[in-house]
Write a structure and sequence with these properties.
By secondary structure, this protein is of the alpha+beta class. 11% of the residues lie in helices and 27% in strands. Strand 4 and strand 5 form a beta hairpin. The radius of gyration is 15 Å and the shape is globular.
């Protein structure tokens, strides 16, 4: 995951304007994809191949403009059988400095299980949302809590009771 952190700024950026992401700490995000992810993302052909990596770089929302740098969210497609129930994705949250804050699969008991619980909503796109990007995905919209099935278990979601220990909140 730290290798992706060191390289992602050289990858293809798939949104010119920041996208508001309530489930990623109520931040503004920019999304990057590595070369392995590009064919699936650009052509809408899923699933993504083994080795595809998507990175969301988060920023504090200063009135719709990116403020201080926040967490970096990583999804890496692993080989078939890694976590078949969750499309074989591995998730990680890194601090703005690259420090790994949590990493794991979507399996129950993993620190990142809540990631796959949200991303399952985008199953048609192999667990990738992609709204506000140039990726060819089927639009998927999560409703606000309580309709949003992710909010209760997602420490990154706004107004979450875990907010005091929220590893996804940008440091001010």
């Amino acid at each position: 995951m730290q290798a992706a952190f060191k390289q992602f700024k050289k990858w293809k950026k798939v949104n010119d304007q920041p996208v508001k992401s309530e489930t990623h700490g109520n931040t503004l995000v920019f999304t990057y994809i590595n070369k392995k992810a590009q064919p699936s993302a650009q052509n809408g052909t899923f699933p993504f191949p083994n080795g595809a990596v998507l990175v969301k770089e988060a920023f504090v929302d200063n009135g719709g403009k990116p403020g201080a740098k926040g967490s970096v969210f990583v999804m890496e497609k692993r080989k078939k059988g890694y976590d078949a129930a969750n499309a074989d994705w591995h998730y990680a949250v890194l601090g703005a400095d690259g420090t790994v804050q949590m990493t794991g699969s979507g399996k129950q008991g993993s620190s990142t299980a809540f990631c796959s619980q949200c991303h399952k909503s985008a199953k048609a796109n192999d667990y990738v949302f992609g709204s506000g990007t140039t990726m060819k995905v089927t639009p998927v919209k999560l409703g606000a809590a309580p309709q949003n099935p992710c909010a209760a278990k997602n420490p990154c979601a706004a107004k979450n009771p875990c907010a005091a220990k929220n590893p996804c909140s940008p440091k001010k």
